[in-house]
Amino acid sequence: MIKKLRIKFVLINMSIVVLMLCVILGLVYSFTRMDLEQESIRMMERVAVASRPAQPGTPGEQAEGVQLPFFVLQVGPHGELMGTGGGYYDLSDDAMLQGLIREASSSPKRLGVIEEYNLRYCRVETPMKDYLVFSDMSSEQATLNGLMRTCLIIGGLSFVVLLWGSILLSKWAVRPVERAWQQQRQFVASASHELKTPLTVIMTNAELMQDPGYAPEKGQVFLESILTMSRQMKGLIEQMLELARANSGQAVPERVRLDLGNLVSEAMLPFEPVFFETGLSLEGETEEEVFVNGEEESLRQVVEILLDNPGSMGTQGGAPG
Fold first, then answer.
1. Chunked in runs of 10, what are the mean pLDDT values of the chain (321 residues)?
2. N or C: which end of the chain has fewer CB within 10 A?
3. Closest Cα partner for 241 from 229, 228, 230, 250?
């Protein structure tokens, strides 16, 4: 039970940890990706503004703060290529450039991505011509891939460390439960032993009453023994219930002045049939006016435990009381 509880504790704890790690690292990745994308778009917009000079035919002046590889295409009203700008690419392949123009012009969106060429574009429309600014996404993808690897490494190391910490924490967390479980097992064992003695006396007296050869005059004695043991069992059960209710602050049993000799004599009476059935005899001598301060039921239980183990008190044929 304790092992299953620890496993359940670790599983719940690690589920929460994994969820938090995924959320945190996912947010870091998403925010970084958005920042890189926004920075790329702002750069392209600055390039688009700088590519519209007062005199036509002079595109390609680099805007301030531009750090990513880019190039600019000037497109006429009918989609024809009118000019190029930017020194990061080889712009001699007219077929590729026309393909880029078709891809960017066919989209209703001003901003977009051409996955085939790993390019992001920004389209700026004017009455006479359109400007298409293309930015390379390779560095952005490399940054995101590196961030992904870093997140996976951090997540993996964090998982291992937190798993080890959860295992140690589970030992500390279930320690009170384990202690309570051990106390409960000990309590059940003690209660079983305490109930065994009166049950043995009741069964023995009942079996003697069923024996056709028993003396009728002893029937009352047997009945009184059964009644005495039944009341004692009731008292034991009430004590167990009281102990269970007072688990977080047990009340100290009230101690009173008791006649120990009288208590021992009363406790011996129900055991005479038990000793007789086992071939033993029970004889007792008690001193008069021997008084003690104690809890009556607890002292009676001590005497009955001794009587329930006659082998530890004497030899066959006599058991001193």
1. 79 88 92 88 78 47 58 81 75 83 83 85 81 84 90 91 86 77 77 79 82 72 82 78 59 70 78 72 74 78 72 44 38
2. N
3. 250
DSSP assignment of 290-309 equals: -EEEE-HHHHHHHHHHHHT-
Q: Kindly give the pairing relationship between strand 81-85 and strand 256-259.
A: unpaired
Beta strand segments in the chain, E: 70-75, 81-85, 111-114, 119-125, 130-136, 256-259, 291-294
From the list 186, 170, 178, 272, the residue with the least C-alpha distance to 221 is 272
> How many whole angstroms separate alpha carbon 132 and alpha carbon 70?
10
Distance of CA 76 to the CA centre of its chain: 66
Residue 71: closest CA among 122, 139, 135: 135
Q: Are 283 and 265 spatial neighbours (Cβ–Cβ below 8 Å)?
A: no
| Cα–Cα distance measured from residue 196 to residue 307, given in angstroms and rounded to the nearest whole number | 12
Considering only CA atoms, which of 68, 73, 65, 69 is closest in space to residue 48? 73
* Secondary structure in 3-state letters for 253-279: CCCEEEEHHHHHHHHHHHHHHHHHHCC
Helix axes 138-173, 175-210, angle to 10 degrees: 40
Any idea what the Cα angle at residue 77 is, between residues 72 and 80, rounded to 5°?
60
Per-residue DSSP letters for 72-84?
EEEE-TTS-EEEE
| pTM greater than 0.70 (yes/no) | no
CA distance 187 to 21: 44
Contact 301/194 with Cβ under 8 angstroms? Answer: yes
Q: Using CA atoms, how far apart are residues 153 and 146, in angstroms rounded to an integer?
A: 11
Q: Is 258 exposed, middle or buried (0-12, 13-18, 19+ CB in 10 A)?
A: middle
